[in-house]
Specification:
By secondary structure, the chain is an alpha/beta fold. It contains nine helices and 13 strands. It has a domain of 219 residues: NAD(P)-binding Rossmann-like Domain (Rossmann fold, 3-Layer(aba) Sandwich), CATH 3.40.50. The chain starts with 8 loop residues before the first strand and ends with a helix. The structure holds nicotinamide-adenine-dinucleotide and uridine-5'-diphosphate (2 copies). Belongs to the NAD(P)-dependent epimerase/dehydratase family. UDP-glucuronic acid decarboxylase subfamily.
Length: 318
């Protein structure tokens, strides 16, 4: 009799980070065994502390730029700092993480015949001329600027995924993730949602970079995690890349005003210089995700912000 092993052994690199910790939690909830690998550069043990008692959860401190020999069925490759402040702190290490790290992950996947999913990013579109951004758009990325270590590293990681697929027949999935926010973002992460919420809750000035007319589309973490898992579960005909994000588009000023309203803050809105190469607009075209994954985000910005503000309130009080 054929016996089906429904429980999978899943490696999540970057599993102690913001998205990784939510992903580990969700996959554990589905009954799988999780190996969470992280070097704690931006992630923390605290993010996964509540999972440590679960016998199906294992945490390993390891830098993915070094080889890793483990036995797994699936790999979610999330290891890489995501906030501009953090990925620009040690740009060479950022590129190494995306390039050497991805080679190691793919070498591992090839050896154990595991399915691998890459957490790519809307940053592969750079400062886009096409709006909204669809997957067939090749992007407009500066190869030598301060954001390049992240953008080009992620582009090279996509190349590696597709070459291991073509050259070695590896089953792959590539998700292009757009700005995602929610509980467990690091308070000093430097990204716009965590910055504004923390500033508003502590009645500090809210720092808009530039005139605040640049746009972003913000996806709540629970929606994103559902999209990632749905992508991993597709059959072998679906490789991606597939955009995952919430198409609701807001200016940074609108976000600041919404955060002030929802927190009831006395903070003033102030302006600071716009960082170099800051993309002017960003909004995902998610038609492919809707068709291939039957997925679309369900949590609007206002609702997601209320939940995020609640989380940061408890953090600031603690
Ligand atoms: P995060 O910084 O919270 O998580 C990244 C994790 O990777 C951290 O736990 C960090 O310690 C770990 N890490 C970094 N370098 C490593 C290395 N060399 N070896 C092992 N672990 C390493 O960021 P996040 O928002 O959770 O992002 C997770 C992934 O999703 C990243 O790959 C990021 O590029 C991608 N992504 C995120 C967003 C977003 O808006 N959150 C958008 C697009 C893409
Ligand atoms: N690798 C790894 N774990 C494994 C298998 C490979 O970390 O289980 C690393 C290995 O160090 C190698 C990389 O993945 O540098 C790429 O492996 P691949 O087999 O594709 O290439 P090769 O070993 O031929 O360079
Ligand atoms: N931003 C801002 N104030 C902040 C942090 C960010 O105005 O305190 C702006 C930033 O310049 C960018 C947008 O908000 O235009 C999103 O920035 P984030 O770092 O969150 O993500 P990314 O630029 O990678 O999309």
């Amino acid at each position: 009799m054929v016996s089906y092993r429904r429980t999978k052994r899943i490696l999540v690199t970057g599993g102690a980070g913001f998205l990784g910790s939510h992903l580990c939690e969700r996959l554990l909830g589905q009954g799988h065994e999780i190996l969470c690998v992280d070097n704690f550069f931006t992630g923390t043990r605290r993010n996964v502390e509540h999972l440590l008692d679960n016998t199906r959860f294992e945490l390993l401190r390891h830098d993915v730029t070094f080889p890793l020999y483990v036995e797994v069925d699936e790999i979610y490759n999330l290891a890489c700092p995501a906030s501009p402040v953090h990925y620009q702190f040690d740009p060479v290490q950022t590129t190494k993480t995306s390039v050497h790290g991805t080679i190691n992950v793919l070498g591992l996947a090839k050896r154990v015949k595991a399915k691998a999913l890459q957490a790519s990013t809307s940053e592969v579109y750079g400062d886009p001329e096409m709006h909204p951004q669809a997957e067939h758009y090749w992007g407009r990325v500066n190869p030598i600027g301060p954001r390049s270590c992240y953008d080009e590293g992620k582009r090279c990681a996509e190349t590696l995924f597709f070459d291991y697929h073509r050259q070695h027949g590896l089953p792959i999935k590539v998700a292009r993730i757009f700005n995602t926010y929610g509980p467990r973002m690091h308070p000093d992460d430097g990204r716009v949602v965590s910055n504004f919420v923390v500033q508003a809750l502590s009645n500090q000035d809210i720092t808009i970079y530039g005139d605040g007319r640049q746009t972003r589309s913000f996806c709540y973490v629970d929606d994103l995690i559902q999209g990632l898992i749905a992508l991993m579960e597709t059959d072998s005909t679906v490789t991606g890349p597939i955009n995952l994000g919430n198409p609701g588009e807001f200016t940074v000023r609108e976000l600041a005003e919404l955060v002030v309203e929802l927190t009831g803050s006395r903070s003033e809105i102030v302006h600071k210089p716009l960082p170099q190469d800051d993309p002017r607009q960003r909004k995902p075209d998610i038609e492919r995700a809707k068709r291939a994954l039957d997925w679309h985000p369900t949590i609007e910005l206002r609702e997601g912000l209320v939940r995020t503000i609640e989380y940061f309130r408890t953090q600031i009080a603690a």
